[in-house]
């Protein structure tokens, strides 16, 4: 017979990150099932307030074990306790705890599906524009960890929310750095929203440092694309956007195109014909800024070619 009074203390000890504690928790859950959960979960939840990073990290691993070793029905029954605990851990000040919490989220999603996205991601995204400083950094860090754990599921959920006005270009830039190939099918939506957001900022006279910062974020998204499929996609998108009647959109399109031409991952020789074709059509643009930027992009692309490719 297990000692219910002593077991939770072992669970939340600083050794909870070790294999022994994990096996102990696994045995408890398997043997006692939902009888042990009412006692273990509240103690794990309260231990997330511990000043000990190792203990908080161990709590996340403990929660992962609980979710893995119990039925989906049991996870659903205790979701009202699990969800707030995981949300809290995901915005922890420690990257180690956030990383462990992202793994817990992945386990929770396997059990709860869309409910995990609605109950955890939605509140996090809602707070994104409200937080500043370290708290905002922790939140972005949480979203990046979640993205790495479940990019194919998380990105389609987050993109429509992040591109709503006002477009959070900074968040998109942070997430694109870890999204990988999962981002490529959303590039059309993301680039259109980014350029629209930049134009709106300029139209609202939100220029200066803030606009420059957002433009830098937009350029980071373009420069983070590392695979050839992504390069083909972004080239096609920007080439089409050069036909926009709105001169502001063409200007920002040209700036992003210039960034694309300097992308360190881009095999320039494989795309030079399409690049030149897109740029040559803009040299007669009625806007001088568009023409100037396109010439800069043309020169940047040309300098990267070998003499043989030239």
Taking Cα atoms only, what radius of gyration do you get, to the nearest Å?
24 Å
Mean pLDDT: 85
Globally, the shape reads elongated
Helix coverage percent of residues? over 70%
Order of helices and strands: HHHHHHHHHHHHHHHH
The rounded distance between the terminal residues' Cα atoms is 79 Å
Q: Give the strand content.
A: under 5%
Major β-sheet annotation: none
Quantity of strands, as a count: 0
Query: How many H/I helices?
Result: 16
What class, by secondary structure content? mainly alpha
Which stretches are low in confidence, meaning pLDDT under 50 for 5 or more residues running? 1-8, 10-18
Structural notes for this entry:
This protein starts with 6 loop residues before the first helix and ends in a 7-residue tail after the last helix. The protein has helices spanning 7-11, 19-32, 37-47, 53-69, 72-77, 79-90, 95-112, 114-127, 133-162, 169-179, 187-203, 208-223, 228-241, 247-261, 268-280, 288-303. Helix content is 74%, strand content 0%.
